[in-house]
């Protein structure tokens, strides 16, 4: 399958001296079109940090992120352009803006898209994204009028309004009851059919079971890696699961 996104020997170190934390340690991975990869690990294992590196939100201390085989841009403008052209993010805390309508929240990625679609096209895309998550009725609502599951669906609509090539979802079901969580995962998985590569970080087994493949992260290291040269293989940990 075609590799869309790749991390090559990526590390992220926060802080310096005695407070230094290696949140991601020499991680290599590949994501292909049309697959859903689940990134599993305990709280603090480096999932969010890895997602932010892959999504060009933060920069690796070492290593490289490649998009469609090419090194991601170095300069901030280039990175911002790639971020908007390629990625849809579903953030851990939804990152919904409370005092804006659902419509305005879903519009955010379109505001930053270059070229920016015209007003009519923006409205059509917002409507389409909200229809996909079953929230077309909520266009003019405020987030405070919605339930937790509905708010998460707004966050998903916002992630897909730009037709992203890669969808990065950080614990998208963590705050949801199991029925709503199942529905939200079904929605995220449906993005594969449009050819997107989907990466879902979670520590929920029920979410993990629905992915095509599982990557496990522990103390910033991937335990299973499909790239041979920097394979961290801890058989005992794999056998535990
Ligand atoms: P997870 O998402 O799996 O819970 P994180 O990526 O949030 O893990 O965190 C991994 C490690 O990096 C943790 O030890 C965390 O405390 C640390 N960390 C995360 N973000 C920062 C930051 N901005 N500054 C310093 N340390 C951080
Ligand atoms: Mg996290």
TrEMBL record:
CC annotations in GO: membrane protein complex; plasma membrane
Keyword field: ATP-binding, Nucleotide-binding, Transport
Name of one Pfam family that matches: ABC_tran
GO molecular function ontology, one term from the record: ATP hydrolysis activity
Domain ABC transporter: 5-240
Transmembrane segments: none
Source organism, top-level taxon: Bacteria
Family classification: Belongs to the ABC transporter superfamily.
Protein known as: ABC transporter domain-containing protein
Organism this protein belongs to: Bacillus smithii 7_3_47FAA
């Amino acid at each position: 399958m075609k590799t869309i996104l790749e991390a090559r020997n990526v590390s992220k170190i926060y802080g310096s001296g005695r407070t230094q934390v290696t949140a991601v340690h020499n991680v290599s991975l590949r994501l292909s079109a049309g697959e859903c990869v689940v990134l599993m690990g305990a709280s603090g294992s480096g999932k969010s940090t890895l997602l932010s590196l892959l999504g060009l939100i933060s920069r690796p201390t070492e290593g490289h992120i490649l998009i469609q085989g090419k090194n991601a841009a170095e300069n901030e403008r280039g990175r911002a352009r790639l971020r908007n052209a390629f990625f849809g993010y579903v953030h851990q805390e939804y990152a919904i803006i409370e005092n804006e309508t659902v419509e305005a929240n879903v519009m955010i990625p379109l505001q930053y898209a270059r070229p920016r679609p015209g007003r009519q096209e923006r409205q059509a895309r917002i409507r389409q994204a909200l229809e996909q998550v079953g929230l077309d009725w909520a266009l003019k609502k405020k987030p405070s009028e919605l339930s937790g599951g509905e708010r998460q669906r707004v966050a998903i609509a916002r992630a897909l309004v730009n037709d992203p090539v890669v969808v990065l979802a950080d614990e998208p079901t963590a705050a949801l009851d199991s029925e709503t969580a199942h529905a939200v995962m079904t929605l995220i998985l449906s993005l594969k059919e449009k050819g997107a590569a989907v990466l879902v970080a979670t520590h929920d087994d029920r979410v993990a079971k629905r992915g095509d493949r599982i990557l496990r992260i522990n103390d910033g290291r991937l335990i299973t890696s499909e790239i041979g040269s920097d394979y961290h293989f801890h058989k005992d940990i794999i056998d535990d699961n």
